[in-house]
UniProtKB/TrEMBL annotation, chains A, B, C, D:
It is a multi-pass membrane protein. GO terms for biological process: monoatomic ion transmembrane transport. Keywords: Ion channel, Ion transport, Membrane, Potassium, Potassium transport, Transmembrane, Transmembrane helix, Transport, Voltage-gated channel. Residues 185-337 form the Inward rectifier potassium channel C-terminal domain. It comes from Spirosoma utsteinense. InterPro entries: Ig_E-set, IRK_C, K_chnl_dom, K_chnl_inward-rec_Kir, K_chnl_inward-rec_Kir_cyto. SUPFAM superfamilies: E set domains, Voltage-gated potassium channels. The chain crosses the membrane at residues 84-109, 150-176. It is found in: Membrane. Pfam families: Ion_trans_2, IRK_C. This is Inward rectifier potassium channel. Residues 101-173 form the Potassium channel domain.
Length: 342, 342, 342, 342
């Protein structure tokens, strides 16, 4: 591991915020200081400079050991969130497996107990049983193959019930997949440090990828970086970053989020090198309300120190044509242009 | 484009509100001013006087360029929100298309491999295959046409599974359509500027179109208009408007929302001509809770300068009959009568 | 109508609360007073002393005139909220009607085009068509009656698709009915005015009727009564009532809600006769979170002046047996016993 | 019952919090004091020292008497929350019962009215009717047994409709079971009293058992214990406990919740014996947002006085391997090690 020189902790007062909901534990200043320390939930022990806290897909960079089988499987979540191609593949596979299983059972129960009008076409008892199983499982039941014994009748009665349940399950899964609220928010690939009014600002840009509307969009940004305790041990520290604007009611086009680097900012006076040395990562949480289903959706993202462009600002994404119509070009989200910092 | 004379920006102090949740960035007054500027999310670049920000159906007046195919299609949203007639039409079309596709496949696999008790009635191999497909897809499977080869049996087994999935999908879509929380709030066609107590007020009126109850109804109104920066460039500015009352617990009859035009109002001293010249638009967001499903629903609307009647007030919508019963007449929502402004 | 003497309006200051979210419209005291007036959404025009605002089932006592057909029908809401017996009756009726309709169509298309193995048993072409329709609609398709012409095959193909859609609809409706979040909160039949600490209190009592848990239960109580304007015209006025406790985290047994009648209360100094003369009604809204589905549920109720017992207090509902187990007896919810007011 | 010596009530001022939402009822100090008393909803009458308020599975320890049959049954809740094995068992049982019922009806209607191609195989009229019923209920309808009279046709038409409804119900139940939002949060088996900064703290530890993410996790802890009124009668009292941190945005690994035992804490100066004598129980409510479905989930738990380890602290659960990857070991959740209190 290379040696890192974490940023020396700034005095706390700059980010000290009043605690409106609880009493100050006034007889211990240490307890009070600890209550003021911001933590987004990762804890202070992540001092490895090579990995990030939040991956680009929004997942967390933490392995879990000794999870139970069912918790690890997390079947419903997996079936709901997996790719459509995989999902349909699993359905097909499951359908085939179920039919092979029941075909085997019918063969064991005596294939002669399934009577068909034209048994020759199936090229063998197994396939007759297989197609009979498929016709039973889907309840299509043409009747050109029928169970011809008590046992096969009973198996078929059970299988058709199972088929209905499996279908019920698929119905639920398909609905669950479709109706799951997901925020399709695209983040600019890079954040920038650009001039902002008479100071500078740390900025990134988001846009709604879909044409369904999001309302009441809220953004929360935290800075995570390594600092050293008075005794010299490195620890990870978190700062909530003030934003020029944390919420918009409507979100019809792009939105550039700006953290003004004023003297109160933990970024005040920082250079690109400082961010790199302290393994800085900007953690972002977006909350919004999907207008179609009136459900709250979430979106996580992070920018690491090496995804920040200094001395560049974002270009304009919107156009106004001759007729006065505004259009926003999603492909221009990542466009930046040079800018001189204040 | 005609020349417009945007309203000169009023000094900020009137609408300056304290920021309870964040620190004042005290070392840059410009940053502080910018934090105070209200923006509902459209940005300042909409300076075209001919188009509105929010269309009458609540959608936004912004085109999107370079959206990806799937994001543009937005299939689920589209199927959920389209008109019932179109929806049922698409279902029928899809059913026909699926049957035509599979009929073709069966014919290619050899129509003689589908055996019927009375093949003559179908007037050709294609239609026999078509009706066999329909009976397979819906799993009705009468059995008077049956697959009579390995290949057609396999295709039919696949088709019946596909039929079940398609049906599962339809179940989900139908439920999604029915259970989607929608606020059926009707807005008065016109807003009015009418006398209000000892001042005047900008008012509009809403009513719940449906008999299911809405509770905890909240209304937020913003004024959007063109103003000029000190350097003379026009830009769009937003003001949150104070309302006499922003929330009601119950919403059993009509509700007239009033913005009192006191000296703190950005409308103070404005004339109809001022509103027109500054391309003023009033943006409205209603949030409510649907009582049946306890879901939060939303509703957007806007009034442009040319949808405001001056010197008129709203008429009474409720009647009390002999027996003392109150009734509210939805047809009277838009009724106004002359009134002299204070 | 009998003559009523509405209570003279108390001076406003007692219930004047600070408005934290908006600026005082300081240049018009009338506007400011109006902003402070509480209104739960019914408005001031309900001056009829014979009817109540909220019916005992939580619905509002307002007729709606000129509602559109679909809004009045409000089909989904109606099907979701109606009694189970009615609901199943409608399903059965719809099934019969659909079969009668299609039977008629098949007969018109030529009943001889449906071929059965034993046509005699149906006692006529209509019933053969009827049962064929039922077997098609449910996709059971035994195959002992089959379509035997192009036309009847096409009708059957359409009907089986319709059957699947109808079934999809039923699936959605059944799920919607079952999963609808409903708060089964039982209110004591009567409210009481009883001694409370060193003053008196207006009290009512609620309990969760079901064994599924409600958490974060919040209660809001408003008093509605007739008062007279300075010019003598009666109008309906609303007061939010302070409660000893407005929220509990858990709701495992009964909860007595108390409005302490201190000098700030609009009930201070009121007699039973005052409440009656001013047509007083106590409007109650309960919000809670259903623990099973984590959904917010609502419940409305009201007590009119004639549903209040004076000089009585609620009896104890809980028992502790020998083994120390606590039990709560739902039948004792309405029990009251005499009590002398302070 | 053994004699218990409840803790003497501490003076109220330490936990008195400002009431922001309502006026102080200033003319009765008793009313004001009562408004300040914290109560999580159990009331003050639970003075039995042998039972706990919240069971380990999160249910409440209160029996309910005279609940109505349907409220007690609470069918949907029960079917949704029961074990999968029981659920599938009930489905199978219901399927068998339905078939036995209809088989009996068909036999009563004349078993000769069901015609099969091979009646011998069923070993009797009942089983022929049973399998016909199964083929009708599941709508598989092979057609090798068919109704051969008006009456049996009518019964079959009814049964197939019933089958579809039962299947619709199962679809809803399966979806409801799968999509029910549940927080799988594991609590450490024991709470500890350990040194915390320069004071001591009461601590417990939680972790998300599943790999789906929870965000905006909020924790609320109340202390419940027996105290004595001035007249010597014991009553149960509740205190909201201040926590070092009540909310985290992300919850990727374990979280140790700390109540600092400063002089304001109701635990200040308490010994293990005090907690035992006053039958102390710590009530915990966790609220979080499930990231997959963006639904709010809840979790209840409690620690009784005999589930608290004194002079021990929690061990570390996370490891950082050579490559710098962090992993968290779920099996170490309950690990504690000795620690000397301040």
């Amino acid at each position: 591991m290379t040696t890192r020189t974490p940023v020396k902790a700034k005095p706390l007062h700059a980010t000290r915020v009043p605690l409106p909901d609880k009493l100050k534990n006034s007889d211990s200043e240490l307890v009070h200081q600890e209550e003021l320390r911001q933590d987004v939930g990762f804890g202070t022990r992540f001092t490895d400079p090579y990995s990030r806290l939040i991956n680009k897909d929004g997942s967390f960079n933490i392995n879990r050991v000794n999870e139970s089988f069912w918790d690890r499987l997390n079947l419903y979540n997996r079936l709901i969130t997996m790719n459509w191609v995989y999902f349909l593949g699993w359905i097909l596979l499951f359908y085939l497996a179920e039919n092979i299983l029941f075909a085997t059972i019918y063969v064991l129960a005596g294939a002669e107990n399934l009577v068909g009008t034209n048994d020759a076409m199936f090229h063998g008892a197994f396939w007759k049983a297989f197609f009979f199983s498929a016709q039973t499982l889907t309840t299509v039941g043409y009747g050109h193959i029928v169970p011809n014994s008590f046992l096969t009748s009973a198996i078929a009665a059970f299988e058709s019930m199972l088929g209905l349940l499996a279908f019920a399950l698929s119905t639920g899964l398909l609905y669950g997949r479709f109706s799951r609220p997901v925020a399709h928010i695209r983040f600019s690939k890079q954040a920038v440090v650009a001039p902002y009014l008479d100071v500078n600002g740390w900025m990134f840009r988001i846009i709604n990828e879909r044409s369904n509307q999001l309302i009441d969009v809220q953004v929360e940004v935290s800075l995570s970086r390594l600092e050293t305790k008075p005794d010299g041990t490195p620890y990870r520290r978190y700062y909530g970053l003030n934003l020029e604007r944390t919420q918009v009611t409507f979100f019809p086009n792009n939105w550039t989020l700006v953290h003004p680097i004023t003297s109160e900012s933990p970024l005040y006076g920082c250079t690109a090198g400082d961010l790199s040395r302290s393994d800085a990562e900007f953690l972002i949480l977006v909350r919004a309300t999907d207008d179609t289903f009136a459900q709250v959706v979430h979106c996580r993202y992070s920018y690491r120190y090496d995804e920040i462009q200094w001395n560049r600002k974002f270009g304009i994404m919107t156009n106004e044509n001759q007729a006065g119509n505004i259009s926003v070009d999603l492909n221009k989200l990542d466009n930046t242009e040079p800018a001189t910092l204040n």
